[in-house]
Amino acid sequence: MSYFDAASSAPLHPVARQALLASLDDGWADPARLYREGRKARMLLDAAREAVAEAVGCRADEVAFTSSGTRAVHTGIAGALAGRRRVGRHLIVSAVEHSSVLHSAEAFEAGGGTVSTVAVDRAGAVDPSACAAALRQDTALVCLQSANHEVGTVQPVAEVGEVCRAAGVPLFVDAAQSLGWGPVEGDWSLLAASAHKWGGPSGVGLLVVRKGVRFVAQGPVDERESGRAPGFENLPAIVAAVASLRAVRAEAAQEAVRLRELTERIRARVPEVVPDVEVVGAPERRLPGIVTFSCLYVDGEALLHELDREGFSVSSGSSCTSSTLTPSHVLKAMGVLSEGNVRVSLPPGTAEEDVERFLGVLPGVVAGVREKLGAPAPETAVRAEELVVDSLGKRCPIPVIELAKVIGDVPVGGTVRVLSDDEAARLDIPAWCEMRGQEYVGEEPAERGTAYLVRRLS
Amino acid sequence: MSYFDAASSAPLHPVARQALLASLDDGWADPARLYREGRKARMLLDAAREAVAEAVGCRADEVAFTSSGTRAVHTGIAGALAGRRRVGRHLIVSAVEHSSVLHSAEAFEAGGGTVSTVAVDRAGAVDPSACAAALRQDTALVCLQSANHEVGTVQPVAEVGEVCRAAGVPLFVDAAQSLGWGPVEGDWSLLAASAHKWGGPSGVGLLVVRKGVRFVAQGPVDERESGRAPGFENLPAIVAAVASLRAVRAEAAQEAVRLRELTERIRARVPEVVPDVEVVGAPERRLPGIVTFSCLYVDGEALLHELDREGFSVSSGSSCTSSTLTPSHVLKAMGVLSEGNVRVSLPPGTAEEDVERFLGVLPGVVAGVREKLGAPAPETAVRAEELVVDSLGKRCPIPVIELAKVIGDVPVGGTVRVLSDDEAARLDIPAWCEMRGQEYVGEEPAERGTAYLVRRLS
Q1: Which chain B residues are closer than 8 Å to A100 by Cβ?
Q2: Is the pLDDT assigned to residue B456 strictly greater than 60?
Q3: B281 in reach of chain A (CB within 8 A)
Q4: What residues in A contact B9, CB-CB < 8 Å?
Q5: In sequence order, what DSSP letters do the residues of A137-164 get, joined into one string?
Q6: Which residues are bridge partners to A386 per DSSP?
Q7: Which domains are assigned to chain A?
Q8: pLDDT at B325 exceeding the cut of 90
Q9: Which of residues 284-303 of B touch A (CB under 8 A)?
Q10: Would you tell me how many other CB atoms lie within 10 Å of the CB of residue B61?
Q11: pLDDT, mean of residues B397-424
Q12: 8-state DSSP, B319
């Protein structure tokens, strides 16, 4: 098996495993207790906090260990918003944040707050001037990920940090995907991360709140972790998390070069070996290990199953059952094709042969799925004026497949009207037009569902 | 070292360690993913849920795994209160609940709710009729622990469950201290527990919400754990927690008899070998492994340090730095002496010799601490009318020590007026009177601090 889904969860690093085993013996007691076992646990906890602070580039007393990255995000955003309540109740998030950030924003909105979403470009990157334009007198917080989890695009955190600093608004950075590769540069105020993304065990998140940032923890708290993470500290896992962070950091520079070369190979070769594919995400400013592409006329979930049979574990932003938001809000915000989406995220240590084997297997797998769905062959023929395709009751990618089958049957300048009641069509028909150089005219309400109008240009 | 603080955290059970190691290999992937590693993780998670449901006596789909017992309590209480918001905003808790329950109650009060606290008797037990009397039309929830964490007293959960059922009010049970010994009997609605109390790893709590109980999770959630515990599941720890629960349950009946005999020995022998000691907590309806006593004229923290030097790790309800609430709200609610408090909580497997060594060492340790503090010798002499003891600026146990030194200097019927500005005196002077058969007359405001009046009766 080749596990290519490190962006979901990385396998436990051998150093983490060792550290976990060692601290199971020394770190099970309550670090708040005064007796020997408690003091030993306290020492381990203090040392872990110092080591994390060094890796993050902050003070030890700014670090709280939480029970997950999600918890760090929820706690951090809620606490920062509450701390700035007098300033106002306006929150800015990018359109491509992780679901934990978006869920926090929804909860804030449900409680009476206002949320502005900053759009991204076709590569998935935020424009710092768009952030600046979204700022208001009553803006309490800005949230921006360090790098995107679905497409690997690195965000301009330092630039947005400057914008925020100039406005006196704190910046919350979800660093879950990048912290294993290096510290987050720039002037951020709060940071969250998740240990199992860098090869640490699950059950450990980080919440960093810079000194001077107003923060009021929400909900019941206790005396642990500066009142920011109630409940007994998960010390063996914390020790293991920190040990693996140090270990991956020591290997990061070298491994980044190697993985970047492998993902570059996938970026370049996939469009050569698979027809009708769009590679998405920034080509340069991106994480080393993530590459994402979408295949026309393919159902993401079917593709994922076939790749799994071939021994490859990948993720899909268009898979209905493996993700919270369907179709991927990230691909939607980027305006790229979401159907037949595959995210390959290589864990450190991925062998070159495995990537080659993947590239060897992929064309046959995609062709197989397309054949089952009756997708059009790369050739087409010509005829009529305006054609209507009735795809009512059919789920994505069928409407696009049917559109592609008939587009050649109208003359250049003629139109195809696709009737569909599947929400994904609203994204995928315009995306298909952009990819194939056809004109997307727009949508109209139909007797049932929606009519999507496409004009043939070539 | 003899670790006698299992009620804080039990050492990892060997079975938990084994299960943790095994599932580090198989259980690190995201159970929500569709590929092989994800399916394996999902199977482990499903099996763990089934096993826990069996041990708790509930349905698998009623169980959510949380990141700690504290988190289970916070989430459970907040969700149950929100689910019953239309009924009213009145919460009932016992006076001796764990701090996580009391913190939840405080947060509820801060948000506009009303909290009633049900008193306990001198043994620490709740009276079901007192619970019934506290119920109101607008009562949303009743919280009662299955057994007390500081003194081991078992609460009448089944009886209170009947009271609640009759009133149509859900009952939340904090089962942290008892779940390793057996399921909670009776008709409860929600239950919380913590794996590291039964020899599981830290980082795992249980929240059980019975079908039909109205529950609205608060704060941002995601699709994991029925929307009750957001964030990546800590699967290796969950598997280990469940394995150790099964293991301790298999040994529970036999080990309960053995530990009960050992704690019974401590209950009986401590008052024989240490003068001026009060053993607190219910003598019969109690957990097998916990015994708590308070020593007059002793500072709990000093005692704890001396016992640690002798190789015993115990906890103290009167230690300022090892606990959230000082002095112990449990001992206060029971009306028993809080000074010089020691909680011995034996982990399963505790050797008889270690308990004997503890009983051998304790008298000398207590005597040594008393000598340093200048406590009175067990003899006394006689004289005057009313004496004033100025203990202003002196911390507990000094005011009680000074009271004890002079009580013999007034004739029977005479009074001692103790001036003190230490809050603990308000608890400990009446408790001393009860223990020594003297009359506590009451308190009066003084120019500085408070005057506590004691009449000599014998």
Answers
A1: 220, 222, 230-231
A2: yes
A3: no
A4: 28-30, 232
A5: TTEEEEEEESB-TTT-BBP-HHHHHHHH
A6: A415
A7: 9-247 (3.40.640.10), 250-373 (3.90.1150.10), 386-455 (3.30.110.40)
A8: no
A9: 301
A10: 11
A11: 89
A12: -
Which strand ranges, in their side-by-side order, compose the sheet holding A63-66? Answer: A63-66, A205-209, A190-194, A171-174, A139-145, A90-94, A114-118
pLDDT at residue A345 in the model = 97
Cis peptide before A397 (omega within 30 of 0): yes
Distance, in Å, from the CA atom of B253 to the CA atom of B27, rounded to the nearest integer, reads: 31
| Helical ranges in B111-155 per DSSP H | 128-134
Residue A180 to residue A242: CA distance in whole angstroms? 11
b/e per residue A215-246 (b: at least 16 CB within 10 A): bebbbbbbebbeebbbbbbbbbbbbbbbbbbe
H or E segment and range at residue A49: helix A36-56
- Interface test with chain A among B17, B25, B28, by most A beta carbons within 10 Å: B28
Residues 326-355 on A with a CB inside 8 Å of B are none
Residue percentage of chain B with pLDDT more than 90: 77
Cβ–Cβ under 8 Å, residues A400 and A373: no
Chain-chain contact of A33 with B236 (C-beta, under 8 angstroms): no
A21 in B contact zone (CB under 8 Å): yes
Which residue(s) pair with B290 in the sheet?
A: B345
Of the candidates B131, B143, B320, B433, the residue annotated as catalytic is: B320
- Return the structure tokens found at B402: 């000074």
B205: closest chain A residue by CA? A231
Residue B330 Cα distances to A292, B91, B280, angstroms: 57, 19, 11
Q: Which of A104, A230, A307 lies closest to B70 in CB terms?
A: A230
* Model pLDDT, residue B320: 45
Predicted confidence band at A386 (pLDDT cuts at 50, 70, 90)?
confident
| B-contacting residues in A 25-44 (Cβ below 8 Å) | 28-30, 32-38
d(CA B147, CA B285): 9
Provide DSSP, B392-425: TT--TTHHHHHHHHHHTTSPTT-EEEEEE--TTH
Q: Which residues of chain B make contact with A9, given a CB cutoff of 8 A?
A: 28-30, 232
The pLDDT of residue A384: 59
Are A234 and B237 in contact (CB < 8 Å)? yes
Residues in chain B, total: 458
Which residues of B are less than 8 Å from A28 in CB distance?
Answer: 9, 11-12, 196, 201-202
CA distance B9 to A445: 63
Instruction: List Cα–Cα distances, A50 to A64, A65, B281, in angstroms.
Output: 11, 12, 42
Segment B154-194, tens digit of pLDDT: 999 999 999 999 999 999 999 999 999 999 999 999 999 99
The pLDDT confidence band at residue B386, using thresholds 50, 70 and 90, is confident
> Are residues B232 and A196, on separate chains, in Cβ contact within 8 Å?
yes
The residue of chain B nearest to residue A308, with distances taken between CA atoms, is B35
Asked if the model's pLDDT at residue A381 lies above 80, the reply is no
Determine the average pLDDT of the residues in B212-220: 95
pLDDT at position A324: 43
Rounded to the nearest angstrom, the minimum Cα separation between B202 and chain A is: 5
How many beta-carbon pairs below 8 A join chains A and B? 212
CA A135 to CA A74: how far, in whole Å? 22
Cross-chain residue pair B5–A36, CB shorter than 8 Å: no
Measure the N-to-C terminal CA separation of chain A; round to a whole number of Å.
43
Q: Which two tokens stand for residue A196?
A: 């199992």
Q: Are B220 and A100 contacting, i.e. CB atoms less than 8 angstroms apart?
A: yes
With residue B159 as reference, give the H or E element that holds it: helix B157-167
Q: Nearest CA to CA, how far is B364 from chain A (Å)?
A: 19
- Which amino acid would we find at residue B439? E
pLDDT recorded at residue A320: 45
Catalytic residues of A: 320
For A232, the closest of B202, B232, B304 (CB atoms) is B202
